[in-house]
């Protein structure tokens, strides 16, 4: 029975290990997917911000250049032609566009002059109004080449996103269920007594489970092999007549059944051959005997 407990434990722990590996793969895959999706939303939103700024300049022909991701959670918006705008208008356009795109409302914006990379205007938005800093925005920025850089101040693609949390909870429940099944199986296995198997030399014979076990090696038995072996185990070192064996196992005594008996005896010999202290011998013209030398 110890072997059975070990094998079931191995199966449970193997399942648990595979589940954990799969969980980590899914977590980091989802994290990567969430990051990519967030980055695309930001780029689309910033292009919309650029388009609205150009329209506010009565410019419907020049282009908004591709939005560049500078680093994690930091992006740059640039324009084909110089432009002028009022900072308060920029604040409104960005806030309104980000809200529509369901982007985080905690970010910093810097308007940078292309000519010298100096910051011409900057402000900080936060979900906490006390942390929001918007300097005087009434002064119109003169027409020039500007880039607008936006940096989000929170980890927008945390591995603890909503989808990831759902996955963790789901796999956690699976692990708990597997552990409960393992504990119940272990208790049931440990409670099984020695009455459930018979000792044949170095073999453990489990008739109900159709198997022999020797040194952690499991040997499967057919139904007929089990029935024959049960008779021999109940009568060790005694001659069992062929007629009795065929009648009890096959309920017949024909020539064909007699040959089947010989075939199954041969199969049992092969499965018991690893233990030299036991021997299934043929008593010519009479029957068979299971010899056990203790």
From TrEMBL:
Molecular function terms in GO for this entry? Answer: DNA binding
Q: Which segments cross the bilayer?
A: 164-182
- Recorded protein name is Transcriptional regulatory protein, C terminal
> CDD domains, alphabetically?
trans_reg_C
Q: A Gene Ontology biological process annotation? A: regulation of DNA-templated transcription
Tell me the organism: Winogradskyella thalassocola
Cite the SMART domains for this sequence.
Trans_reg_C
Query: What are the OmpR/PhoB-type domain coordinates in residue numbering?
Result: 195-292
Point out the DNA-binding stretch(es).
195-292
């Amino acid at each position: 029975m110890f072997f059975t407990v070990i094998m079931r434990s191995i199966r449970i722990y193997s399942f648990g290990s595979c589940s954990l590996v799969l969980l980590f793969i899914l977590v980091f895959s989802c994290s990567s997917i969430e990051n990519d999706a967030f980055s695309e939303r930001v780029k689309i939103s910033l292009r919309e911000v650029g388009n609205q700024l150009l329209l506010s300049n009565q410019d419907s022909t020049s282009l908004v250049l591709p939005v560049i991701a500078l680093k994690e959670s930091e992006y740059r918006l640039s324009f084909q032609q110089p432009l002028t705008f009022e900072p308060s208008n920029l604040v409104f356009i960005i806030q309104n566009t980000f809200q529509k795109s369901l982007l985080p409302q905690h970010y910093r914006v810097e308007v940078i002059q292309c000519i010298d990379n100096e910051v011409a205007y900057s402000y900080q938005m936060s979900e906490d109004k006390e942390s929001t800093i918007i300097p005087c925005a009434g002064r119109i920025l003169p027409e020039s080449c500007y880039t607008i850089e936006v940096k989000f101040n929170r980890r927008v693609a945390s591995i603890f996103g909503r989808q990831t949390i759902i996955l963790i909870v789901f796999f956690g429940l699976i692990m708990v269920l597997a552990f409960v099944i393992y504990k119940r199986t272990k208790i049931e296995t440990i409670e099984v007594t020695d009455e459930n198997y018979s000792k044949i030399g170095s073999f453990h014979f489990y008739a109900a489970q159709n198997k022999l076990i020797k040194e952690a090696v499991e040997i499967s038995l057919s139904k007929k092999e089990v029935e024959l072996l049960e008779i021999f185990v109940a009568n060790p070192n005694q001659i069992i007549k062929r007629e009795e064996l065929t009648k009890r196992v096959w309920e017949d005594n024909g020539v064909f059944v007699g040959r089947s008996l010989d075939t199954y005896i041969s199969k049992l010999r092969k499965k018991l051959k690893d233990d030299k202290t036991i021997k299934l011998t043929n008593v010519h013209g009479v029957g068979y005997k299971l010899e056990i030398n203790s």
